[in-house]
Structure formats: structure tokens, C-alpha cells
Amino acid sequence: MRKTTTGLSFDSRDLMRAQCSHCTRVSVARELKVAGLQELIDEFYIKPDSLAIRYGMKYEAALENELVQNLGDLVQAPQSQTLEATYELMRQGIPVIYQGVLKGGSGQLEFSGRPDFLLRGDYRFEMNEQGLTAIQVGAWQGGYTAWDAKLSASPKPDYQIQVGLYADVLRTLNLEAPCEHGLILGNREIAAFSADALIAQMLVKRSAYELSVAAIVAQDPKTLSDLGELVCEASTYCEMCEYPALCRHMRLQTNHLQLVAGITKAQIDALRHLGITTVRQLAELDEPTEKHSVEVIRKLALQARLQQIFFDTGVRSQVVADPELLSGLPEANPGDLFFDLEGFTFFGEPGGLEYLWGWVDAKGEYSHHWADDRAGEERAFENFMEAVLVNRKRYPQSRIYHYAHYEKTALKKLAARTGKYEYELMQLIENGVFVDLYKLVDKALVISEERYSIKNLENFYEFDRSSDVKEAMGSMEFYDQYLTTLAEDADAAEKLKRQVIAYNRDDCASTLALYKWLLDLT
Predict the structure, then answer these.
(1) In Å, how far are 51, 154, 304 from 158, measured between CA atoms?
(2) What is the CA radius of gyration of the chain?
(3) For residue range 274-304, what is the model confidence (pLDDT) as tens digits?
(4) Three-state secondary structure call for residue 182
């Protein structure tokens, strides 16, 4: 959101995160110069940056390079990032314009955006052995279509809405070709849509956004208190936001119900109808009303109580909420394995890459397999499955423990992709060999933590990590650095590799420690 000489102007990111009223409120209030807001924003500003953003930019740059290599001077970028410079290339009839600028649209607010590609109406994108190119398919009748590059393998609605914004501007400026617009997806498929369909679904979201902006402007806020809660309601868009740290600060400042682990927006709304707006108030709730799920609210109240005690005293605690469920944890077996997979979502082929397969046995001895490509991934999968089947023959009652569903999902995906061990894996799953400790913890325990990640649980069984890598996304960051470094400095790459392996070893050992702690609680 930007204030211009003619009013407020928005971009595609503003519309994408319009589901979060907090994001809209902050961006509009910033341009209205609400007293004290800019200082608060400056204190907590974080430039959006993630592997998803970086790899999305890399993909876009790769496509631009392919087009230039394949089409030469038929592909150009405007000399300046302005509508005028972009329009000049259109006037010249350049077939493919990248990094152009579009402004305007049919809405009450001016839209400003930069489509990845503008394609002349007599050209069509296609993929060949040399990558992305465009071919001429008839006589040019004037106009262009808009295209965006997205790393996703599917044309998500938000992406279509973004292209709809561009199509709407082209139509408003009488620069639209009577052809389909669309997306160039991460699996290198081209998804094309009619302008009417794209614009129609965009209009629904844009209209709601413009109404919310108009309401904020009409309110004419002067101070921070006029803005109400500065807390995000839709975490889906936090990775593209500059203010997640501000949200975190305000949640803590206001003792917000969002701090309660596992709570949903619907539950927060229901509690507010009861006059409960803070963690402390929920913690003090004696008995829920008959209008709401008694057991659900009772467990949320217990969760809030434990967290509030921790906030007040620093003392962590846990409660066994379902002793019967916890008592169903399988007994220890000398053949038990504690398994953790590391995957890299941004591998250059659909489906990502499961690059590190690690497990410890009941004695804590660590084993692992590393993969840098599809062939290595398949070998790692085969070696793991063979090790499991041999282990099961020796210890028929053994289990494979993991935390959350990722490992089992990845195994099923690889069995289907490779056509190997499909029957054996199905038998292992149906016989209950894989045990997801997260499901057990989530249902059987209540702990004084905001999250139920294995890292949070380590506070209760005092597990000390040796790795410099602290989170799963951190391991992907390290693996990304490893890939970048591998061709330039083998020794530096090996050091990064050892750090990721150490992280995986910690995860496996922590899963074993968690299992032993849960046994002690039964």
C-alpha cells in the first residue's frame, strides 16, 4: 500500500494478504501517518526473506534467461521500472516483455504491479528441450497477455487472482490481447486461463479489500489505540509480511488467546462471545457453557492455565490428560528404531528430495544415508527399507517411532514413485509398526508450551542438542548452502553436510529420549 498524488495504491501482495485484517490495517494506517505507528513498525520490521521467496526469484530469473537465450532481441525489459517505459516496448511490438510495470485497473483503488512476463497476442509460450520459449501463431491483432512464474506445481487461486489484476489493467488500458493469460508453474507446465475467468474471481477479493480499506480511511484513525488489536488473524501470509515480530510483540503485550497452543480462530471467536479475550481469563475459566464443546474448551482452559503459570513463574509443567491413551504406548523392544527424515522442498524436480535418512536404535546408535539426487534418494529409500525388513525379522515386535506425519508420508510417496517396497510398506503401516509420537503427545498430554514441536518437548526431558542447526527450516537453509558451496569449495560443503547430519542425529536421539520420557509418565 502506497499513498500517491491521486490517492492510495495497492499491489498484489496487499491483496493476497487481505484475508488478514491486521496486515491491511497496518499498511493503510502507515500511509495515513497514524501517530506512533511508524516508530513501532521500524522497531519490529523484518524484510520478508525465505527459501521459498529466494527459490521463486531464482526460478523466475532462470525462465527469463531461457527466453533470452531462445529468442534473443525478441525479449526485452523496459529501460526503467515505469508504465511509460513498459508501454513504449508494447508500442514497439516487442514479443516478450519481462519485469514490466502495470498501473491502473477498474477498481476504486489504483493497482500497481510487475507481471513477470507480458506476451504479445500472436505468441504462445511453450516448453522445449532448451526451456521456456515463445512461438508465433498468427497475425498480431494488438494487445498483450500477462504471465507470472510460480514455483508451485499447481495454479493456486491466489496466483490466478494476481494474474487477474494484471489482465484487468491491460483491459482497462485497452492493451489486452484476446487470448489466455496464465502461470508458468514450477513443474514447467503452462496453466492458461481466460481473462474473464481470472478477472471475475479477482473482483470478488478486490471488492472486499477495497471495502476494508475504505472503512479504515473513514474511521480516520489518529493514534495506535484507534487501530485496535495489531495482531495477525491469518498466519498463512506471515512469510510474505514485514511484521511477524510486531504480531508476536503485541500477542505478548495483550496476553492474546492466539498464544494458547492449538487454539483455532473459531474457538477464539466463541470464547470472545463469552467475554474471554486473554490467556489469563481462559486459564481462570471454571466450567464452559453448554453452548460449546465442554471437553474441547476444558482442555483449552487447562492448556491456558499451564501456559499462564509458565508466563508468570517460569515453571514448566505437564498434565497427562488421557492416561488410558498414554498407557497404550508399545513396550520397549531391543529392535525399536527412532527415525527422522530431512527433505528439501526446493529440489529442482517436483516432489522435493528426501536427502537425509537417519535413525537410532534402542541403544542410541546412529545410522544414516545421504542423497544429492534422485538416484541417491532411491538408493537411500531401498537401503532404509531393507534395514527395516531385516530388523523386523530379528525383532518381530519392534516399532519405528517418528514425530509427526512427514516420514510416513514421504515413504508412501517414494514407494509409489519408484514402484518398490509398496506391499512391504503397506504391511508395515497396517500392522502398526510406524508409531507417530506427535499424535500421542497431542491427544494424551497438555504441556505449558505454545507449540508441541519436539524442540518444545525437549524442555521436559532435558535433551541437549549438539548441532548448530536449531529448526527443520534451518536444516533446509544449511542444505541449500551446501548445494551452493558444493561446486566451489568441497571442504566447506562437507562441513555444512556434517552440521545437517548432526542435526538429524539430534532429532533421532531426541525421539528416543521422548519415547523413554513418555514411558516414564505411564
Answers:
(1) 19, 11, 35
(2) 27
(3) 899 999 999 998 765 555 467 788 899 999 9
(4) strand
Backbone angles phi, psi at 191, to 5 degrees: -105, 115
Contact status, residue 77 vs residue 57, Cβ threshold 8 Å: no
* Per-residue confidence (pLDDT) for residue 242, from 0 to 100: 82
Residues in the chain, overall count:
522
Band of the pLDDT at 487, cuts 50, 70, 90?
confident
Cα–Cα distances in Å, from 397 out to 326, 400, 509? 19, 10, 21
Average pLDDT, the chain: 93
Phi, psi of 89 (to 5 degrees): -65, -35
DSSP annotation string for 264-297: -HHHHHHHHHTT--BHHHHHT--S--TTS-HHHH
Residue type, 129: E
pLDDT of residue 472: 58
To 10 degrees, what angle do helices 265-273 and 294-313 make?
Answer: 90
Put simply, whether the predicted model's pTM sits higher than 0.85 gets the answer yes
Interval 434-473: pLDDT, tens: 999 999 999 999 999 999 999 999 999 988 888 776 665 6
Handedness of CA 32, 37, 42, 46 (dihedral sign): negative
Q: What are the cell numbers at 15?
A: 491483496
Three-state SS at 330 = coil
Please answer whether residues 12 and 163 qualify as being in contact, where contact means their C-beta atoms are separated by less than 8 angstroms. no
- The model's pLDDT over 300-349, given as tens digits with 9 standing for 90+, comes to 999 999 999 999 999 999 999 999 999 999 999 999 999 999 999 999 88
Q: Quick one: cell of 156?
A: 493456486
| Rounded Cα gap, residues 91 and 84, in angstroms | 10
**What is the three-state SS of 86-110?**
HHHHHHHCCCEEECCCEEECCCCCE
pLDDT of residue 471: 64
Q: What is the DSSP letter of 450?
A: S
